[in-house]
Amino acid sequence: MEVDLSVAGNPLSIPPETLFEMAARVNKKRGFLFVSKVLGKHIPVSPLKPLLASGLLAIEYAERTFGLMTDIKAEVIKGFLAEDHESMKKACDLLEKQRLALPVSPIVIGFAETATALGHGVYDSIEGASFIHTTRETLKDADPVLTFEEEHSHAVDQLCYTDEPIFSAAERPVILVDDELTTGKTALNIIRDIQKKHPRREYAVLSLLDWRSSEHKEEFRKAEAELGVTISTSALLSGAVAYQGKTLDQSSYDDRPRGDEEDVSVRWIDLSDCFTALPHLSEQTGDAPFVKETGRFGLAAGDKRGVEAACQKAAERLNALRKGKRVLCLGTGEFMYLPMKIASLMGEHVFYHSTTRSPIHPSGEEGYDVKNGFGFPNPENETVKHFIYNLPKRGYDEVFVFIEKSVAARSLLPMFRIFSDRQINDVTVVTFSKGSDRHGSCCCGNGQLSRVGCDVSFKRPVRHFD
């Protein structure tokens, strides 16, 4: 494979090598992947880094679209480029204190699965904004308000579930947030669906990287004329990409872990009292409900303070249980923002990234940033395969695994084997929502140190905490 890149736009003068590396997808539709070094998906990062990336996207949009200048821009860029915790934290504090006031409050939509947290961070940065993120999950008892396709993806269907009033004000612009644009087709697909159901005049597409060709940009101009709208774009880096080579339909990499789950000490933490359950949107009767603060079903401007308070409370609780110095906080799939935000409030020496649906070919070659990868069934839906990338051996003293809904202990055994393979022996499973426990969930939530509902034996005791 050969990928030729040329940079045409770099408005904030960010060195390209700080933003991304390249990797090979295991996907016949598209052979390559931009592996973000600031997103917190495939590569572990300080959890403050994605929050700063979101803030810079919001600042760039406000400046390009409305000419709104902010006196914190230079400090946020400085913090974003820094590697020390103090500088990044200072820049994040500035973003929280000085949110952007735009002429009209927008509706921010983050794209699943990779940009759910990135979009939430943009919403955080804009005063009066509303937020929702798309999802690949199909709910049996709810109808989506938007449906569209991400054509190049291995899982093409994208859905949006929310109350209709979020789109009722036609004067409000819609901001779409993605980690990168290669053709822009996904953005145009959702714009067409919104315009058909909830027409308005103004859209914006924000992305870390924009690699659209002149032909793809022309498609945006055609869509503007066709729909009678304006579509602006903002990115931290833009240019052109040319690909040559044969795509991979399978990887030769062996992703089977060699570890034994019995070598892992596991404890279970239930944070359901910190967050707001949405029982009317559970997939099946008896299942644990979704959590409002994710933004999957919409957040209004007034919800920001509640999300912040919930994450602060959760971070304090987890920090009190923290044993190791070097800690990994691992999100799962679309469930990225709350784990990332909590991790950002846990102090120094905390790293964050997430599991993913994306099949990527790992390699130990020098200069290739996806060093290793492990596949396993998604604990919340075992019919969907997930992956963890870039887990170093003995790289962390302990791991916090964040799962939105309580799950059966046996469904997590494949993950425990991966941690054992990487010689990470202290694991805390953090759940945000409790169900009926009919599936053998270990989150008993009864305030006792017990093994109620756990049908799995471990050499070390499995402990439960409220």
Number of helical segments with 4 or more residues = 9
- How would you describe the shape? globular
Structural class given helices, strands, pairing? alpha/beta
Which quaternary structure do these chains form? single chain
Low-confidence stretches: 436-466
Task: Give a short account of the largest sheet.
Answer: 6 strands, mixed
Q: Into which percent range does the helicity of residues fall?
A: 10-25%
Query: Average pLDDT, to the nearest integer?
Result: 89
- Give the number of domains: 2
Q: What sequence of helices (H) and strands (E) makes up the elements?
A: EEEHHHEHEEEEHEHEEEEHEHEEEEEHEE
Q: What does this molecule look like?
A:
By secondary structure, the protein is of the alpha/beta class. The chain has 2 domains: 2-244, Rossmann fold; 261-465, 3-Layer(aba) Sandwich (Rossmann fold), CATH 3.40.50. 24% of the residues lie in helices and 26% in strands. The strands form 6 sheets. A 6-stranded mixed β-sheet has the order 1-10-9-8-4-5, with helices on both faces. Strand 19 (398-403), helix 9 (413-421) and strand 20 form a beta-alpha-beta unit. The longest helix has 19 residues, at 48-66.
Please outline the helices and strands.
Layout: E1 2-9, E2 20-25, E3 32-36, H1 48-66, H2 73-81, H3 85-97, E4 107-110, H4 116-125, E5 130-133, E6 146-149, E7 157-160, E8 174-181, H5 185-197, E9 202-210, H6 214-227, E10 230-244, E11 265-270, E12 277-278, E13 290-291, H7 304-321, E14 327-331, H8 337-344, E15 350-354, E16 360-361, E17 373-378, E18 381-389, E19 398-403, H9 413-421, E20 426-431, E21 463-465
Parallel strand pairs: 4-5, 4-8, 8-9, 9-10, 11-20, 11-21, 14-15, 14-19, 19-20
Antiparallel strand pairs: 1-10, 2-3, 2-16, 6-7, 12-13, 17-18
